[in-house]
Amino acid sequence: MLRRRTVGDVMTEEVVTLRPDTPFQEVAALLDANDIVAAPVVDDDGVPVGVVSASDVLRHETGMPDPQGKDGDDERAWGKARARTAGALMSSPVFTARADWTIPQAARELRRRHVKQLPVVDDNGLLTGIVTRSDLLDAFIRSDAEIRGEIEQDVLARILGLDNDTVVVDVQEGVVTLRGHVPEPRLGPVVVGLCQGVDGVVAVDAHLAAAPAGLDE
């Protein structure tokens, strides 16, 4: 079957982490020094217990529950504005992902949870990486050459066992055009479906005919 890229393929494995007792000034310095917008907070065993974001830091800096300076009556938000450690500043519970999740699965979780990043954990709940919205977007922003190569090598040759000259593949701005012939009429929709499953493909325009070889629509 066609291998879909997973969270494990795009996540960052070397993660900047915080401890619940990390002082606020150190939190702010680590985010700034590493040019990141958030960092997971882990316990003594390496299990994520929360996430501190740049927005949390801004709440503290403005002394207001909203980073834009708006008043609010949320006691938890006011607590973050007065926080002195990562544990008091962090958002919890933490929502996590697994390395074997597909890219669309992780994207749906980000959207459902209204967050911009997900710590990635293993079977024991230990932190193994972090995946962000930009990581997921990069998975779909692939060059036309990469897409064409995957279709020719994985879809047509490896999965379907078609000869090199059976189907000509052209990719422009993620739109795949297929021209050629397939051994049986039923393979046409199969080829299209597999191509649509390739990461980065925007659409598939198929001009495929069944045998005899060389017949084109």
From TrEMBL:
A Pfam family annotated for this UniProt entry: CBS
Which CDD domains does this one have?
CBS_pair_BON_assoc
| SMART domains noted in UniProt | CBS (SM00116)
Q: Which PROSITE patterns match?
A: BON, CBS
Positions of the BON domain: 143-212
Q: Where does the source fall among the domains of life?
A: Bacteria
The UniProt keyword set, sorted, is:
CBS domain
Q: Where is the CBS domain?
A: 11-68, 90-146
**PANTHER family given for it?**
CBS DOMAIN-CONTAINING PROTEIN CBSX3, MITOCHONDRIAL (PTHR43080), OS02G0818000 PROTEIN (PTHR43080:SF29)
What name is this protein filed under? CBS domain-containing protein
The record lists the organism as Streptomyces bullii
Lineage per the UniProt record: Bacteria, Bacillati, Actinomycetota, Actinomycetes, Kitasatosporales
